[in-house]
Design goal:
It comes from Salinispira pacifica. Keywords: Acyltransferase, Transferase. This protein has 5 helices and 7 strands, in the order E-H-H-H-E-E-E-H-E-H-E-E. It has a 7-stranded mixed β-sheet with strand order 1-2-3-4-5-7-6. The chain is globular and about 40 Å long.
């Protein structure tokens, strides 16, 4: 069900990216960000570029319909999860858990000993999801000016 993303998946990945942000971050980020700066075409261009350059590894949850995606970057002994988004129509169906498990198995096969990610401080649902999967805040907090929001770094030793 989880597989490496292909260029032909970019449009669906972009849709999921935009729909997920607008649903999940509706009360955390401004309308300017969610409805003016964020759009499917811009997201599509970015994901096509990422898929063609392979700077990031992108995986999709695909059971006949692409329901979610994850982007990750290897950095030495770490695997950083850059993004994990599920189409809101398929929330709570196990897609996110499957992507997390797949990434952790991938990391272990690569000899990577730790994973980390950044999560919006106010995103309690995502924080609970990561904590359920063994991640915890390591005390690092940063301000993302482009989002006008704070993020916390979560990590997990494998």
């Amino acid at each position: 069900m989880v597989r490496k993303a292909k260029i032909s998946d970019a449009e669906r990945i972009a849709e999921i990216h935009v729909f997920s942000w607008r649903t999940s971050y509706r009360h955390m980020l401004s309308d300017e960000i969610l409805f003016n700066k964020l759009n499917v075409q811009t997201s599509l261009n970015r994901h096509r570029e990422n898929l063609s350059t392979e700077e990031q590894t992108l995986w999709v949850y695909d059971d006949g319909i692409i329901k979610g995606f994850m982007a990750a970057v290897e950095e030495g002994d770490f695997l950083e999860i850059k993004a994990i988004y599920i189409d809101p129509a398929f929330y709570r169906e196990g897609c996110g858990a499957a992507l997390m498990s797949f990434a952790e198995e991938y990391a272990e096969k690569q000899g990577i000993s730790q994973m980390f990610l950044w999560v919006l401080e106010g995103n309690s649902a995502a924080r609970r999801f990561y904590e359920k999967h063994g991640y915890s805040s390591d005390g690092v907090r940063t301000y993302r000016e482009v989002l006008d929001a704070h993020e916390l770094r979560y990590s997990k030793k494998l």
